[in-house]
Amino acid sequence: MAQKSLAEIIIETLVAAGVKRIYGVVGDSLNGILEVIGKRKDIAWIPVRHEETAAFAAGAQAHLTGELAVCAGSCGPGNMHLINGLYDCHRSRVPVLALAAHIPSLEIGSNYFQETHPDQLFRNCSHYCELVSQPGQIPRVLEIAIQAALSRQGVSVVAIPGDIALKQTEYRKPSSSIQRLRPELRPSEEEVTRLANLLNKAKSVTILGGAGCAGAHAELMQVAEKLKSPIVSALRGREHIQYDNPYDVGLTGLIGFASGYHAIKEADTLLMLGTDFPYTQFYPEKSTIIQVDRRGENLGRRTRLDLGLIGDVKETLSAVLGKLETKTDDGHLKKFVHHYQDVRKGLNDLAVGHPGRKPIHPQYLAKMVDEVATADAIFSCDVGTPTVWAARYLTMNGRRRLLGSFNHGSMANALPQAIGAQLEFPGRQVVTFSGDGGLAMLLGDLLSLRQLKIPVKIVVFNNGALGFVELEMKAAGFLGHGTTLDNPNFAELARTAGLHGIRVEDPTDVKPALVEAFQHDGPALVDVVVNRLELSMPPTIKLEQAVGFNLWALKAVLSGRGDEVIDLAVSNLLR
Known about the structure:
With 575 residues, this protein is an alpha/beta fold. Helices cover 41% and strands 17% of the residues. It is globular, with a radius of gyration of 25 Å. The model is unreliable at 545-574 (pLDDT under 50).
């Protein structure tokens, strides 16, 4: 049987699995793999400036395609930098393979230069994590890793000492099983009947839909029509649910709307579809609760259930549709649809840009991005207030996509995710909602945009603070320390890095700047100075939060920082 180097077998196996690129930062322990990539035209090495960026970029690609994406890190610190991005990929349930190069195999266990234990370090953020200690392992280990990532929708890690990657072993053609499979999964007939019976006897049903509703839009609308049910979205479900949806009542959760919150709380039956929504305080206390999820481990994890079913949302809804009775009382639906319309009007009233009124309302910036962006744009948003504004003001239409660190909640995700999205979809517009803190954390990868020559558009919500953290401190009654950011002019920094950079400080310049940047043939950054004191309120205010704000105001006055209280009040009254 013919022999090939492990590096050759690795790359051939990845190509057979449909992999087109590997994101990473080079290092000598990756030399064998890079040498093979350099000789091929069907796979590319994507150089970034930080391995965390590599993992986030791979995750964005996997999220948008559902197919395997790959990142790599050299031994020791190199692959350790992957960890945060891989945690995000794993918690977002996207198929990513990480190649973690390791020190020379004979030195393992000797406290050698850059020695770590990647087979242990990555276990908590992967479904499969193994160390290759001899050449004959690689064909099976790599294929098992790929299949684990694809079938379980998460991260796999293969740790390979650099010297092992150069060795020869027997070659066999990659298995045909290392492609994404799409089996249909539905509950049994008996379980579907139980589901129908519970829904038929319910007086008021609210649906809470998550990312598991992808591909089930038509069935979801049909069920909502029969049940006369308002539909509440979890954040990751928004792009799949909220378009062409007359039953939409918005989001729930910490960045949601009062309409979504009360639609769940006041229903006598809650139907959870493809969501693992984590915040237990937003679930009803006395309602009948039904959950449908293809992952059995999610059932009942957040709240007690009256019925839990394992199945795809699309398949389960298709099965139950014929058993549902059409309800005639649409009072519950109309109440919260009207409530949501009022909420939306209130949000739109906040998204104004009065000439000369500074600093700019971030809501207005978000609304203008929504208007200027293309109908099939891909958005990525940093955590904190950029996620709030993206969730509230971006219009999802069935073609647009929205990326974020919605489960892991990591800073600095927007720019790296935009890199992966733009490389996978070079013909589509990719726009970030970047926080000034998030952008600064991985600022070096502005240079990646220049080097890769990809036209990502970065919109910076520059409020000079870690704004959401600051708001949380105030709600808890703390004065707040360490949240101020002494920022440079990000537009000037962008121009220095070879990007098109625009600084905006007046509302009248927002839309023209966005149009100019979005039409620019290359990467562009729009640095917009927005109001630091804008309040992004949750759908319901707890007593302790109100007490916390009052305590913060009292502390601020007594410590000589009363101007902060006045500024906050004036900022949110003068619109």
